[in-house]
Amino acid sequence: MKTGLLIIVGFVMAGYILPSYAELESVSYEFPKYISPSNESKPGSTDYFSNPDFEIYKIKEQRHEFFIPYSITNTKLYNLTIDCPSRVMVLDIEPTKTEGILTIVIPRLLLDSKYGYEDDSFFILVDGQEVEFSEIENNLEVRVMEIPFSKNSSQIEIIVTILISQSNDPLKISPCGAGGTEKSPFYQLLSPLKQFKSGMPLNEIQCKDGLKLFKRNWEDHPVCVKDASIEKLTLRNYLYVPFGSSGEAPSDESESNLQEIVMANNMCQNNTITRNDTGTFLTCILSDNAKNIFELQSPVYKLETCTSMHGCGWQYVWTPQIQSDLISEEQKQQVIDQILHLPQTNNWPASPQLNHFLIFPNGDKWMANVEFYIAGVKMPQHNKCEYFDSVEINLETLDIQSGFRNFTNFETCKP
């Protein structure tokens, strides 16, 4: 027999209400009516699903749908509910004219009674009165109870008992509605959308093994996807949802920063991410074989909150860090001279004036947008007396990426 201090988590019994945790006095209590074949879990399990004497009751709890095999004599079970905060399973049966027996298979990950790592007894009530019961099977997946009831019975309560050790060891709360992500005949993980619609917070939704949780950027619509689909979804404005308070920790550094790494790989394949007191930085490493006329350093980006008025594909963006002295004035003039030797400039009717010289990184490349203004001319069918034209040039190789317009029919005008 087990002896300990018993606290029954608050619940309503027929005719009266048990006192709260704070009000309940510590009493010595024995369990003379609890019969267990063994205190050790056995690996095997009877196949209740193929047994014609058993029916299957389905119940949704938190993230899972559970399948509870049961058999009952001389009446019918018409409702079964779980109150996880109170750790109580309530079974409503049709009132009987004779006595009967309920045999119920309780998946441990739906409801279990534990004291530390050891099995603890359940507390069984029939219409508010404690009854004898037998635990006829006990293995790693389930605990099977055989509960007798008298005639005219209408409700059976299966209650988790919580024992407080006299040595003040830490209290380990028994699981309720926990389920799992692996395959089991006793439960299945609901789809992410069904979990969300049932009221589960977005960051507590679970995916099946091998899948990761994302959501649409513009709404809370959860999806579970394979690793191979992550990059495509990121480009379609889906956001990675880090695991929240569901009890499972990220497996490693890359897992907890998955979205950050995906976006970094979209910027450039050969990269490093570093962190210091001033923030998180991405370096897109230049290839050792790349031509680098000005011997420029690899482009660096800083992780910052996205504030774009055009919308954000992720809540953060990689903002380029551009040194003011990236190239010298002599190197800048070398770039301009290279551009003005393009054949399209031969058709310009007047000398060009430099309008801007904008340096920017593009992944692992340094680029410049160089724009010129030509006074006194305009393009046909343009009302303004102005002409602007620009090129984009690779500052490492001085190769032109996009050139001037090939236009010759200018009109003179007065500014």
Notes on the structure:
The chain has 415 residues and is mainly β. The protein is built from five helices and 31 strands. Strands 1, 4, 8, 9, 13, 14 and 17 form a seven-stranded antiparallel sheet that branches. The N terminus is likely disordered.
Topology overview:
Layout: E1 3-8, E2 12-13, E3 16-17, E4 28-30, E5 34-35, E6 55-61, E7 64-72, E8 77-83, E9 88-93, E10 100-107, E11 114-115, E12 118-119, E13 122-126, E14 129-130, E15 133-138, E16 142-149, E17 155-163, E18 187-189, H1 192-197, E19 212-216, E20 222-225, H2 230-235, E21 238-240, H3 253-256, H4 258-267, E22 271-276, E23 279-284, E24 300-305, E25 316-320, H5 329-340, E26 353-362, E27 365-373, E28 377-378, E29 388-394, E30 400-402, E31 411-412
Parallel strand pairs: 5-15
Antiparallel strand pairs: 1-4, 1-17, 2-3, 6-7, 7-10, 7-18, 8-9, 9-17, 10-16, 11-12, 13-14, 13-17, 15-16, 19-20, 19-21, 22-23, 23-24, 24-25, 26-27, 27-29, 28-31, 29-30
Assembly state of the chains shown = single chain
Radius of gyration: 36 Å
- The geometry reads as rod-shaped
Low-confidence parts, pLDDT < 50 over ≥5 residues? Answer: 1-44, 163-171, 244-256
Note the main sheet: 7 strands, antiparallel
The number of E-state strands comes to 31
SSE-based structural type: mainly beta
- The percentage of residues in β strands lies in 35-45%
Number of domains: 4
Cα-to-Cα separation, first versus last residue? 104 Å
Q: How helical, in percent, are the residues?
A: under 10%
Residue-averaged pLDDT: 77
Number of helices: 5
